Amino acid sequence: MTIKVLLADDQTLLRSAFRVLVDSEPDMEVVGEASDGAQAVEIARAKSADVVLMDIRMPGTDGLAATRMITEDPRLQDVRVVMLTTFEVDEYVVDSLRAGASGFLGKGAEPEELLAAIRIAAAGEALLSPAATKGLIARFLAQGDGGDGDSAYDSSRLEALTVREREVLVQVGGGLSNDEIAARLEVSPLTVKTHVNRAMAKLNARDRAQLVVIAYETGLVRAGH
């Protein structure tokens, strides 16, 4: 299957460069370009995009607002958003994840990283920037109200999870892959994937990135632990 990609950035030159790169791959194609968030949402609906490369800072409707509009639209439930940041350390990273983005990537990433990001997002995996450390994600998420009772996710939501699913969620929150979790818990990667999928269903998480957010916001995982 061909991955349909939408490019949303107010810089025409950057969009053109991304288009050439994406269209050069046999398994993906650019189905549209947008210069602001509102236009991105319209094109995502019209073109049935699979992945949106969304710049955070754009005039008019910014990337953050556009991401919320996409993730809150039932018609776009299968669309995955990868936020593009000018710097690896961006103040809006945590807001992007909470808005429903599947992850973020620095604009200075290598071409191979960008293409990998599109494939990872399309597969429903979390893309926590290849150049970012687990500690970076933890620090950003810790800036919220996770675990203090005022966050969007009440810790009581975790009651729906089995003990094993909680254990797996802790590892997901730590940034580990299924293979790494399998090795740590001494189970098969397929078993881990099953637990992850069940946790996503029970917690109504769009993808793995949302599980990471929930793990921190409920206090199940905390920065530095």
UniProtKB/TrEMBL annotation:
The UniProt record lists the keyword Repressor: no
4-aspartylphosphate, modified sites: 55
Record-annotated HTH luxR-type domain positions: 154-219
Domain (Response regulatory) ranges: 4-122
Cited SMART domains: HTH_LUXR, REC
Biological processes, Gene Ontology terms: phosphorelay signal transduction system; regulation of DNA-templated transcription
Keywords in alphabetical order: DNA-binding, Phosphoprotein, Transcription, Transcription regulation
The organism's place on the tree of life at top rank: Bacteria
Pfam families, sorted: GerE, Response_reg
GO MF term set: DNA binding
PANTHER family: TRANSCRIPTIONAL REGULATORY PROTEIN NARL-RELATED, TWO-COMPONENT RESPONSE REGULATOR
Protein name as annotated: Response regulator transcription factor
Organism in which the protein naturally occurs: Streptomyces malaysiensis subsp. samsunensis
